[in-house]
Write a structure and sequence with these properties.
Radius of gyration: 22 Å
Oligomer: single chain
Shape: globular
Mean pLDDT: 92
CATH topology of the largest domain: D-Maltodextrin-Binding Protein, domain 2
Order of helices and strands: HHEHEHEHEEHEHEHEHEHEHHEHH
CATH architecture of the largest domain: 3-Layer(aba) Sandwich
Largest sheet: 5 strands, mixed
Strand content: 15-25%
Helix content: 40-55%
Length: 337
């Protein structure tokens, strides 16, 4: 009996050694917990979409690990980016959704607090490109871009950081198109910025639809004036408003994170097998009918998903193609007080 038991033990150990890395990774997730971070405080669009991913992703991962949602806000996603880049273990059990422009563009703007290279993260994918819309509060009296161009007073626009699109895009338009925007920077996230709009502290915001509560739209509290991509019917696209070549390049740079969408990422150097499993699981999730139904119900972007490898390649191409002049001017906006 002892000899037989020894033979069985050797056979079992040999079988484990002969398992492919992918098979071992599939077994690896059984009984484990994945910690999934959002790079913004609770309550905003990034936090809410992270929690939707936490709700659905597990069922598409072999072994169905638990997924624990957490928040690590700070500097428009930069704090979480630093953590994932240098401190998190690259074992497939720590993932994040840091954000869009603040996270992606901070290193380009030479932000000394951003201690990472976005090209080195392990990109899992995103559900769709994110369409940012310029919303005006009803108290502003604005109903169209023509009204905006004719406005003779300053319009306070809510911003949430030095590197975020909701701060910099309106400032670019103010510089080049002479729109009467005064961006109020410093709100600690999109949710507080939207709250300022609701309270009347500010009268406009440049944000994704998911960050604006449906009742704010339905009640007429806010009106959309223009959008980044041609996704909303009968709404002007920002590209048609631009009159300067440099302005177009700057807006194109700021639109890059929106085109990527709100991506799911892991630390650099994750094992190939875990990366493959998580990329495939995320891809199946964002194409799942139940996920898409819930995403639409919450006003999240649903469209053509972006896979992780394509995102990494696109980022490398964009970053390598930036001119020093565009980078310098982008930095001038980031460094404004």
């Amino acid at each position: 009996m002892g000899a037989r038991a020894s033979v069985k033990a050797v056979m079992a150990a040999t079988a484990v050694l002969l398992m492919s890395p992918l098979a071992q990774a599939q077994d690896f997730y059984s009984g484990k917990t994945i910690v999934l971070y959002a790079g913004q405080p609770p309550g905003g669009g990034i936090d809410n979409e992270m929690r939707l991913v936490a709700q659905f992703l597990s069922r598409f991962i072999p072994g169905e690990p638990q997924i624990q949602p957490r928040n690590m806000p700070g500097a428009g996603g930069v704090t979480l980016g630093n953590y994932l880049y240098a401190s998190a273990t690259a074992d497939g059990l720590t993932l994040g959704m840091p954000g869009r422009a603040g996270f992606v563009l901070a290193p380009i703007g030479d932000d000394k607090t951003a201690r990472y290279d976005v090209r080195r993260f392990t990109w899992m994918g995103s559900a769709a490109s994110t369409n940012f819309i310029f919303w005006a509060r009803n108290s502003s009296g604005l109903k169209s871009v023509a009204d905006l161009r004719a406005l003779k007073r300053e319009l306070n626009v809510a911003g949430s950081g030095a590197t975020t699109s909701n701060s910099i895009v309106p400032e670019i338009l103010a510089r080049y198109e002479k729109f009467p925007f005064k961006v109020v920077r410093g709100y600690p996230g999109m949710a507080p910025a939207v709250l300022s709009l609701e309270r009347g502290e500010t009268e406009a915001i440049f944000s994704d639809r998911a960050s604006i509560r449906p009742d704010m739209i339905a009640s007429g509290l806010v009106t959309p004036l223009f959008q980044t991509f041609a996704m909303e019917p009968n709404l002007p696209v920002i590209d048609t408003l631009l009159t300067d070549v440099r302005e177009r390049e700057l807006i194109g740079l700021l639109a890059t994170p929106m085109r990527l969408g709100l991506a799911l990422i892991g630390p650099p150097g994750m094992p190939e097998a875990q990366t493959k499993i998580l990329r495939e699981a995320y891809g199946r999730m964002v194409r799942d009918a139940a996920y898409q139904e819930e995403a639409r119900r919450r006003n999240f972007d649903v469209g053509t998903p972006n896979d992780g490898e394509a995102i990494a390649a696109y980022l490398s191409k964009v970053i390598s193609g930036l001119s020093p002049e565009v980078i310098a001017e982008y930095k001038s906006f980031v460094e404004r007080n």
